[in-house]
């Protein structure tokens, strides 16, 4: 059987999708930072300059630097990807690592809204075949014959609407730092800390993230402690 690889020019679309999501997330964070600063900081030109510099420039540089590294990593995976479909199994290669999945072990092949095919099996972690694969239509037809392809369905509200979680996080953060109502601060703080702990747990237990990403995620512990201190101070010291 032929070996299928990703289209050389297809990564541009993948990169565009990633950058678009990051820009949207950055704008939400900037709005949150500006809102917190407006309600908690002194209203003078110095505070405005510092807020804009930190919220727009510094956060932007940090986020886009992180995204640049992720895009570089994803590009290496994309360019090294290959797919071999045999009678009884399919084999995926990426960055020198191979994964073989027998068709009898496949639980589901689902197509997401971008056309990517997600393969869930009993023996391996979730695998993805990019919509930018060369001869994509042919591969899709073969897989549909071998197992059947269904539209991706998810009951997880945050996966169905990815923008929802960042909005909730920013709203809770604004409530913690802006509100003086102890009930609002308490509920928002507990929700925010719970979401962040869940995020750390997901990063450390999911095979999707490499060791470098897991190491960087430890900075989240400092953020959690900072939020916890703020909530404690507002609830018991004011």
What labels describe this entry?
15% strand, elongated, PH-domain like, four-stranded antiparallel beta sheet, 8 strands, 238 residues, 3 domains, alpha+beta, 8 helices, four-stranded mixed beta sheet
Could you explain the architecture of this structure?
The protein is of the alpha+beta class and 238 residues long. The protein folds into 3 domains: 6-79; 81-151, PH-domain like (Roll); 155-238, no CATH class. The chain has 8 helices and 8 strands. It has helices at 11-40, 45-80, 136-146, 157-160, 164-178, 182-205, 211-216, 219-236; strands spanning 3-5, 82-85, 89-94, 97-102, 106-111, 117-121, 127-129, 150-151. It has a 4-stranded antiparallel β-sheet with strand order 1-2-3-4. It has a 4-stranded mixed β-sheet with strand order 7-6-5-8, covered by helices on one side. Helix 1 runs antiparallel to helix 2 and helix 6 (182-205) packs antiparallel against helix 8. It is elongated.
């Amino acid at each position: 059987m032929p070996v299928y690889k990703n289209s050389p020019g297809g990564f541009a679309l993948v990169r565009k999708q990633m950058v678009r999501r990051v820009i949207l997330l950055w704008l939400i964070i900037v709005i949150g930072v500006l809102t917190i600063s407006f309600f908690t900081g002194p209203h003078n030109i110095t505070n405005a300059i510092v807020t804009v510099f930190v919220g727009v420039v510094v956060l932007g540089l940090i986020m886009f630097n992180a995204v640049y590294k992720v895009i570089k990593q994803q590009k290496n995976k994309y360019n090294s990807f290959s797919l071999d479909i045999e009678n009884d199994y399919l084999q995926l290669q990426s960055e020198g690592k191979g994964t073989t999945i027998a068709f009898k072990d496949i639980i589901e092949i689902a197509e997401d809204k971008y056309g990517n095919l997600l393969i869930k099996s009993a023996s391996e972690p979730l695998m993805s075949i990019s919509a930018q694969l060369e001869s994509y239509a042919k591969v899709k037809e073969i897989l549909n014959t071998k197992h059947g392809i269904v539209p991706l369905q998810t009951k997880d509200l945050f996966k169905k609407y990815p923008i929802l979680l960042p909005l909730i996080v920013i709203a809770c953060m604004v409530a913690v730092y802006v509100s003086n109502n102890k009930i609002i601060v308490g509920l928002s703080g507990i929700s925010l800390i719970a979401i962040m702990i869940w995020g750390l747990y997901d990063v450390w237990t999911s095979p999707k993230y490499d060791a470098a990403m897991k190491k960087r995620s430890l900075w989240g512990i400092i953020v959690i402690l900072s939020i916890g201190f703020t909530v404690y101070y507002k609830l018991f010291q004011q």
